[in-house]
Request: fold
Amino acid sequence: MSKVLILNNENVDFENVKALLEKSGYSVSISKSVSDLVNAAINKKSDVILTTTESVQNKVNIHPAMETQMETIFSLAKLAQSRDDDTGEHLTRVQNYCRILSEELAKNSPYSQLIDNDFITDIVNASTLHDIGKVGISDLILLKNAKLTEDEYEVMKTHTIIGAQTLEDVHSKFGDNSFIRMGKIIARSHHERWDGKGYPDGLSGEHIPLPARIMAIADVYDALSTKRVYKDAFPQEKCVQIIKEGRGTQFDPYIVDAFLRVADKFDDVRQMFCDKVS
Reply:
């Protein structure tokens, strides 16, 4: 787990502190961006992340016990991910897909007034928590190398409720936090469908929270474009076509339109953070 070093004096020489730590053998990142902080911690890019109390507390509304909270949250995300994906790249990809989609929607969509910089920061961070409920699913189901039975599929679907309840527990312990609130929404609702045929609540249309509708496309694209135990990776053209065909049924039509405008950027992310073959 990367350690977050909070520097209270805003006039501190970050580069000097970084140089001293590097002389001691640490790899160091300097960040006043919470999104960058989360990326560095989850992906083990650095041993130490330098930031300021103000940048963390003001931008994400972090509880005073910040380091303990962050470690708890990151551990949840990493634990869930490790159950059925040991590459470490899935979380990075979906973070980038959510960022790209949100930025495009902010520029050109009916949702532009709902998406600001704080929304984008929160969805990038919260996207890592979308499948934390899988920690409560048996390996016999989660890692099965064949199609799930109807009963097994019903159990698998409960990961959405388990995830939301887990984040509610985190929220209760650490207090109000914007990206944990969004994480709960995404964990519960990212498998809902625009036509109301999804789960766990059968929500439809704009009754599905916007962050979950964005996450739905990011998650499905990643499933389509990467190799899984039950399938090979689909080529970019097929991934785009499948999502396009889901416009107005599985997915929010406006978000599909935004995806089609930035599909090349998704492909760039997929290639940049491709899974490592052992």
